[in-house]
Design a protein that fits this description.
This protein is mainly alpha-helical and 182 residues long. It has nine helices and no strands. The protein folds into two domains: 51 residues, Orthogonal Bundle (Arc Repressor Mutant, subunit A), CATH 1.10.10.60; 121 residues. The longest helix has 22 residues. It is elongated, with a radius of gyration of 19 Å. This is HTH tetR-type domain-containing protein. It comes from Porcincola intestinalis. GO terms for molecular function: DNA binding. Keywords: DNA-binding.
């Protein structure tokens, strides 16, 4: 059984790597199963044993990123922006190829929105305990503002700025924003 699990993981990894390679060149709706299989040196039956089509393969890759991000969120306090940024950088390091194609390359803009939505409940809950003067609507607007800005700083600045520069900058912005409600 273990050997089989290793084969499955290998096959899925090769299919994902081949798909991401093609996704660098063209959009998902222009990629065929045949192209993925040729690049992966696997037959179509093998592909269909794992995925129904290229969109399902892309969804699988996106879900891996979201799962990794979700795992990172469980390990941090929603009020600790430094830890959140460190978690984002760790996720990018662990899933570099997928992040570079889907997020940084813009092949799947919905992934960022889904990450922002994933962090929303825990962040707002943590803020409610700290920011007693803020209304629910204000916390929602603050989260939208900070989360979108944070994601754009990380995505736009990943290759420009060091992790430490981003953490320092975002901490200053967050402290300034949160001070409005204390």
């Amino acid at each position: 059984m273990r050997k089989n699990d290793a084969r499955v993981r290998y096959t899925q990894r090769v299919l994902k790597e081949s798909f991401l390679s093609l996704l660098r060149e063209k959009p998902v709706n222009k990629i065929t199963v045949k192209e993925v299989c040729e690049l992966a040196e696997l037959n179509r039956a093998t592909f269909y044993a794992h995925y129904s089509d290229c969109f399902a393969l892309m969804e699988s890759i996106e879900q891996e990123l979201l799962d990794a991000f979700g795992q990172s969120l469980r390990l941090i306090d929603g009020f600790d922006v430094s830890a959140l940024i460190a978690a984002l950088y760790t996720m990018v390091e662990q899933h570099g190829d997928a992040c570079r194609v889907l997020i940084f390359g813009g092949a799947s803009p919905s992934v960022l929105g889904r990450m922002i939505d994933l962090a929303r409940p825990s962040s707002i809950a943590a803020w409610k305990h700290q920011l007693h003067h803020a209304s629910d609507a204000e916390l929602e607007m603050l989260y939208t503002h900070l989360s979108n800005g944070l994601m754009n700083v990380v995505v736009g600045g990943y290759d420009k700025y060091s992790r430490e520069e981003v953490i320092s900058f975002v901490n200053r912005i967050v402290k300034s924003s949160l001070s409005l409600f204390r």
